[in-house]
Amino acid sequence: MTARPRSRGLLLWLFATLAILAAVATVLHADPTSEVAVRRAVRLTARTSLGLFALTFAARALAGLWPCAATEFLRRHRRHLGLAFATSHLIHAALFIRLGTLSPELGREVFAPQMLIAGGSGYLFIALLAATSNDAAQRWLGAERWRRLHTVGAYWLWVVFVLSGAKRLSGGPIYAVMLAVLVGALALRVLERSRAARATATPRSGR
Length: 207
Fold this sequence. Notes:
The structure is a single chain. Helix 6 (about 115-130) packs antiparallel against helix 8 (about 145-165). The protein is mainly alpha-helical. Helix content is about 85%, strand content about 0%. The chain is globular, with a radius of gyration of 19 Å. The two termini are about 40 Å apart. It has nine helices and no strands.
């Protein structure tokens, strides 16, 4: 990656991070100790994380299916989109922990073993993917192991997001929209790979 695309990617990450922090600050401005305000900030960062994850997850497929300047930009900067997702979800975790410190009842809810296990596995993959989202890590791991790590990690996080959204479907239509975004992102990947496989097989069938 040349210096210019890398600098653009860093600006993308910085812009996303500052936008999320500004939105959180706005939500918490009136009363940062209010359970209602902290819950709103938790939900806000859950949604920014999902949006950034979906863009990262589908960036390559979008560029393959509909090549244009916008989708090519997403494809070239999907590492920085992934880092923006990791940052968003780190802020989400900090807010979630803050929520758990507001009262003993909330602490039991937030720090329940099942919450820690489910969330911990997701954050472990987020940390691994963020730490290896660079050329040096790819060279050190080798292309095949790096690909396997990022493929397994991406699909694991997809499953975590889907399960999290599915159990909250009764909370309103926003969760149905979130699930639709995730399913759509997966469908794009499947469609793009299917089209690429057919394109590869076509010359062989003509022999």
